[in-house]
Design a protein that fits this description.
Pectate Lyase C-like; about 350 residues; elongated; mainly beta; 31-stranded mixed sheet
Length: about 350
């Protein structure tokens, strides 16, 4: 019986095999490129134009070097549970609006871990619209990734930055540590319908989480961490300000690194900050929970419902703008508290208090 054979090169076969099952799924490890990042870039380029698809990068063995790549709208990149080292001369990993970057988890073993090399000095992952920082990051997603931002060998850079968090966007289940600047940096307008949840920020250089030039509305759920100089920094609110809701936040210190849980500073607009639940603790003594810096442009309003603070905190509000201090009992369950411009009302286990009375 006649037989025929078709002979093709290994590289041609790899290219065919990378797309043979589904034109909307590209297997990144089978594409050409000197490192995992360049292979991912080639796989993204192979997807149907104007349609997008999935880049399956789970086939890479551990560990891998990585040149930063851009995830455009309509493309989802799946990363494996391995260790990636980013080249110092390469770009950040950029996720545009409508792009999705998804790892396998933040636990060890089993984590998708990304670490920049010495001298990288830029954000590890940057979520930004293709239109630039002033545009909206709609429909984007980053989750299940561990970032070791290597502040020991880098003087600049955030772990993860987000510009214009917008509708149906999601930052979830991230572990971000050792950034030279903020672990999680969020800048500009927020639509109020994007989600940031279950993010741990530890031992970063300036802030665990920084909301910079904030305006509109944002909710952070189950976000916080350990041993950041300032756990939550609200800096330079602008263009009308807006509302910030922290649900079940965390701030924890150590003897060596004793964080200020929250600071509001600078800006030209008012902020309304609401804290619901959460736990702030530190082993040191005579500590402050929330500081309003003297350069704060407008008096913020603060509402606290159900926050628990450890016995090291003696000051609830340190308002340097109005020269007003509100003390707190050690190990306090803050049932209900509201503050603005030197005036407050509080209900806790010691009773109901107002100032002026």
């Amino acid at each position: 019986m006649p037989q025929s054979y078709l002979l093709i090169s290994q590289s041609d076969w790899d290219g065919l095999n990378a797309k043979i099952d589904n034109i909307h799924v590209a297997k990144a490890h089978l594409f050409p490129g000197a490192d995992a990042g360049l292979k991912i870039t080639a796989a993204i380029a192979s997807l149907p134009a104007g349609v997008g698809g999935i880049v399956d990068a789970t086939g890479f063995p551990n560990p891998q070097n990585l040149t930063g790549f851009t995830v455009p709208r309509g493309v989802e990149v799946l990363l494996p549970p391995i260790f990636f080292t980013m080249f110092s001369t390469g770009p950040s990993i950029v996720v545009n609006e409508g792009g999705r970057l998804i790892g396998m988890g933040t636990n060890s073993p089993g984590a998708t871990t990304i670490k920049p090399a010495s001298g990288f000095n830029k954000d590890v992952i940057k979520c930004i619209s293709s239109g630039g920082e002033s545009s909206w990051w709609h429909h984007g997603e980053v989750r299940n990734i561990r970032i070791l931002a290597n502040k020991q060998q880098n003087a600049l850079g955030h772990g993860l930055s987000v510009y214009g968090l917008a509708e149906t966007s999601l930052i979830q289940r991230m572990s971000i540590s050792d950034a030279a600047q903020a672990g999680l940096y969020i800048k500009g307008s927020q639509s109020g319908t994007g989600s940031i949840e279950n993010v741990t920020v530890n031992t970063n250089g300036t802030y665990g989480v920084q909301l910079d030039e904030f305006r509109s509305a944002i909710t952070l759920k189950c976000v916080g961490g350990d041993q950041n100089p300032i756990t939550f920094g609200i800096t330079n609110p602008s263009l009308g300000g807006g509302g910030i809701l922290l649900i079940d936040p965390k701030s924890e210190g150590s003897i060596a690194v004793d964080p200020l849980p929250i600071q509001i500073s600078g800006g030209s607009a008012k902020v309304s900050l609401t804290i619901m639940g959460g736990n702030f603790t530190t082993p040191n003594s005579n500590k402050t929970i929330l500081r309003i810096a003297p350069d704060t442009g407008f008096d913020p309003s603060v509402q606290i419902i159900g926050l628990v603070s450890g016995n090291s905190f003696t000051t609830l509000i340190d308002d340097l703008k109005n020269a007003q201090t509100v003390s707190t009992q050690a190990s306090t369950y803050h049932s209900l508290f509201t503050y603005c411009a030197g005036k407050y009302a509080r209900f806790d286990e010691t009773g109901f208090h107002t100032f002026p009375s």
